[in-house]
Amino acid sequence: MFAILVAVTVVLLFGFIWNKTRSRLTHIPGPSGIPIAGNAFELTSTFIMMQKMHEWMEKFGDIFKINLFGEEIVVVSGTLTGEMLVTKGSDFAGRPRIPALESLEGNEVHLVLRDYDPKLRFIRKLVHKGLRQYGEGMDKIEAISVTEIAKCLDKIEKLDGADFDPFPYIHHAISQVMNTMVTGEAVPDGHPMLNKAIDWDRLDGELSQDITLFLPGMDKLAFLLSGKLKDYAGILEFFIEHWRSYEATYDKENMRGLYDVIYKAYLESETDEEGIKISYNNVKYLMFELYGAGITTTHKSIYAFVHMMVTHPDLQKRIQAQIDDVIGSQRTPTTADKHKLPLLEATIHETLRYISHLPFALPHETKKETSLGGYALPNKTQVWPLLSGNHHNPKYFKDPLSFNPDRFLENDGSLSPASSRRMLTPFGAGTRNCIGEVFARTRLFLFTSSLLQRFTLLQPTEGKLNVLDPKSEDYLKKIPCVCPNFKIRAISR
Ligand code: HEM
Which residues form the signal peptide (predicted)? Predict the structure, then answer.
């Protein structure tokens, strides 16, 4: 017994000294953790992790470090977020390796999780060009979105006021806009692409619950996730096969969508000033990453918006009154109406703040030796911007856990200036900001304005909804966070 006790003490002592001597960040405060595992066992679920992150932010301030089996991660909030993402954006523009996920995409990451290198810069330029041509060009996005939104609303009308879960309706509409953006056309109703997109979303959420993904050495232990990774790879291949079928009819004089734009860059060996080209693998997988990013976050924002409308009926009435005034009941909302509906715009801002469904954006990594808030940081330090820490902080947003779009309005009802919303960064900011922000905001506006123009959203006949608690275990199950499934009624106006 004594021998076992001594052995355990020696291992713990060794672990403690090993962790301490290996630390490159001894000067940064943080929770002490246990030998070898560091803080890993304190972060056993997304919910607990988020609770701890906010607790540590309050205790240690705007910069602290955690340790996951020797991998040190710096967590940043407050005004240091701006220093990290914008002022010193290129110093922090890297992404850490997530080896377990890399194995899915042919041992190379292509866009979202790619490190900041010349190829990433070229890919971001290409995607921006494609989005501008096929998405952010307002006429085009409007035409695509309005058609799909109208189809979705027609389906909801057919329910004739019965209880229903809006989840698949919103998901399919958002996926169809993405399908049209990528290939130039929506898929027929009932096409397997639509349900595969839901399967992908579910699996992506399940994988994100696994904190082990971020641990060093997971490329060797990926078998622990093998079932999920196999299903994920199957869906990925399915999407790619679907898009590949469009290559046979590719015509460079008639660009149909984003896939054609990226495929053309590959076929014609387009280069940038640094002589970078993209490979065929880049074409396939970056399209997949864009497709996924374009659906998962936007869908969850609209789903939460619907929940908020049902639980805040007075707010819903005020938005409807503004829509009736500006647009009326006959004309379809357009993006030109956006600035005339400040209450709706403020409600979209407030939804994104309140739900903070990407609570620490995506992991970043330093590209060189740098500093933050006066603390020196070595090259290749993993850094997470804690966006929810800002969004739910009373220092920046009064009474942050109450849902109150009026916080973004002036006394005369107009939208407050962008400069007053500096701490609201649901899309990140700076060098690695979200590529799809304009596209996402446009779809959010068109969907929510059309929905409230046509329907009043009510509590279901059974199972009343309570106001969503963005700190609850039910909400913080996975990342991106999503409201637990719910039912409502939609009554034609
Ligand atoms: C409500 C909707 C959305 C939200 C809240 C959102 C939020 C974010 C955030 C926080 C990041 C990480 C920024 C960082 O690393 O600091 C990100 C990255 C990204 N988003 Fe979005 N996003 C949304 C919609 C979209 C859409 C519609 C698309 C595509 C059409 C998209 C494509 C991307 C891509 C490609 C990246 C990675 C950029 C890079 O790594 O360089 N997102 N997004």
Answer: none
In CATH, what number is assigned to the domain containing residue 349? Answer: 1.10.630.10
Average pLDDT of the residues of the chain:
89
Pocket test for ligand 1, best of 287, 297, 352 (most atoms within 8 A of CB): 297
Looking at the domain assignment, is residue 10 inside a domain?
no
Contacts of 56 (CB under 8 A, 6+ apart): 30, 31, 64, 66, 75
User: Taking the complete model, does pTM exceed 0.90, yes or no?
Assistant: yes
Expressed in angstroms and rounded, the spacing between residue 214 Cα and the centre of ligand 1 is 19
**430: phi then psi, degrees, rounded to nearest 5:** 75, -150
**Could you give the number of structural domains in the chain?**
1
Model confidence at 96, pLDDT cuts 50, 70, 90, reads confident
Give the distance (Å) from ligand 1 centre to CA of residue 250.
Answer: 28
Q: Distance between CA 434 and CA 289 in Å, rounded? A: 12
User: Are 76 and 430 contacting, i.e. CB atoms less than 8 angstroms apart?
Assistant: no
- What's the gap in Å between 357 CA and the centre of ligand 1? 12
Bridge partners (DSSP) listed for residue 384: 75
Minimal CA–CA distance to 415: which of 363, 360, 341?
A: 341
- Is the pLDDT at 13 greater than 50? The verdict is no
**Ligand 1 proximal residues by C-beta, below 6 Å:** 111-112, 124, 290, 293-294, 297-298, 301, 358, 361-362, 426-428, 432-436, 439-440
Rounded distance between C-alpha atoms, residue 182 and residue 258, angstroms: 5
Whether residue 8 is predicted with pLDDT greater than 50 in this model: the reply is: no
Q: Domain range spanning residue 172?
A: 93-356+392-492
Proportion of the chain above pLDDT 70, given as a percent:
89
Residue 434, marked binder: yes
Distance 325 CA to ligand 1 centre (A): 33
The string of pLDDT tens digits covering residues 207-221 is 776 666 665 555 555
Separation of first and last alpha carbons in the chain:
76
Q: Give buried/exposed letters for 108-137 (b at 16+ CB in 10 A, else e).
A: ebbbbbbebeebbebbbebbeebbeebbbe
